[in-house]
Amino acid sequence: MRTVVAKFGGTSLADADQFRKVRDIVRADPARRFIVASAPGKRSPEDVKVTDLLLACYDKAAAGADYSAELDAVGARFRSIARALSLDFPLDDELQALRAHLDGEPRRDYVVSRGEYLNSRLLAAWLGFTFVDPEWCVCFDDAGHLDNAMTRRTLGAALRPLQNAVIAGFYGADMAGQVHTMTRGGSDVTGSLAAAAIHADLYENWTDVSGLLAADPHIVSTPRTVKYVSYRELRTLSYMGASVLHTDAVLPVSDLDIPINIRNTDRPADAGTTIVRKLPRGETKYPIVGVAGRKGMSVIQVEKVMVSDESGFTAVMLDMLKNRKLPFEQCLTGIDTVTLVIRSDLLAPCKEELFAEIREKLAPDYLGLTENLSMIAVIGERDTESSDANVRVLHALAREGVPINTANQGAGKLNLLVGVPEDRYEDAIRVIYAAIDDSMQNEGA
Ligand code: ASP
């Protein structure tokens, strides 16, 4: 029998109506046996997430201030769900216990984890599934880091005997029983760990969008939804700022080749985006997945005649960065030039002394700095040649008068990176999107 792990995010479980949708979705496929839940998220753009209310409770309690308003708001969120669904659940006892903890020596991670804990207990009651508390099976080491290998074993042992279960996302505990939370959005990681632990056939990640978009919808109107994306392409998209899944959620399932399907709780009929290691046959005919970018980049350009014959020149430069723990985004070398792309906020504190050291140690013929740049990635690692699309990208930018400061594809086919001035970033994204429109797959295409 197929087994699916389905994780529902905060907006998918924000109120009783959303709980009803979730139950319909779970019942629609008996393979959806293991459900991972987030804390209630926002019901409207002005609303506050329960996790943020809990954070505020903790901050106030730790400062000895009155946290009643925030705790009451947390209680009201859960009470309205429990009442509307007529759930038989000792919510008052739970809230009382939380208050007692806050009045003692509160621990931040414990307090913040209560959003997932309570929501998962309510969801388990609503679905008639067993509740699994990650305190016993999502393992952190003594330093407070998630222990992937141990979690896989322990969570697997906890889930395998069960027909179905709801697992609270976002937290676990160390050997001493201290609760630890993951970074924000961490329920995605719990879902991935659960899917890996039981070798699920599929990890569904239910959220409030119908998958990944091929471009930022604030810039391009109604961009395509990406149907398939490889783990590597996703990594590049996320790095470039397209956020749909916690970055740590990929590794546990990609190791085991378990696909991730991003789905929309409000539009369950949409196929969403499927993240895979290898694209299915026929899906490789479109070379490009999408376009994404980042602002706030600087480019350092060092020129010296015959630099290509001088061994160690680039290494000396990279050592200077290493000594300052300054990461770089790209390093491009030409006949007589070395170009480094670095995040401006990281470069700013050491710019002057770095330049002084380059002048002193390398005596360049020219040393230049271009600031306020953005880097745009045109992403696609397909069997199909993407060079045609790349040519069209560069040509379209030139035609529209968008200056190209750097262009880099390296030897791999994963992406073409172009550097353009920050004030032309939005133009560039629109121009590129239009140029590659027919090179992209489309949901239902
Ligand atoms: N509730 C947590 C957050 O708001 C974790 C999650 O939703 O995944 O970040």
CATH superfamily assignment of the largest domain? Acetylglutamate kinase-like
> How would the global form be characterised?
globular
Topology as a string of helices (H) and strands (E): EHEHHHHEHEEEHEEHHEEEHEEHHEHEEH
Name the ligand types: aspartic acid
Poorly predicted parts: none
Strand order of the largest sheet: 3-4-2-1-7-9-10-8
CATH topology of the largest domain: Carbamate kinase
Corresponding CATH architecture of the largest domain:
3-Layer(aba) Sandwich
What's the number of extended β-strand segments? 16
Beta strand % = 15-25%
Radius of gyration equals: 25 Å
What is the end-to-end distance?
30 Å
Q: What is the helix fraction of residues, given as a range? A: 25-40%
CATH class of the largest domain: Alpha Beta
Averaged pLDDT: 92
Tell me the number of helical segments per DSSP (H or I, 4 or more residues long): 14
Number of structurally distinct domains: 3
Question: What profile does the largest beta sheet have?
Answer: 8 strands, mixed
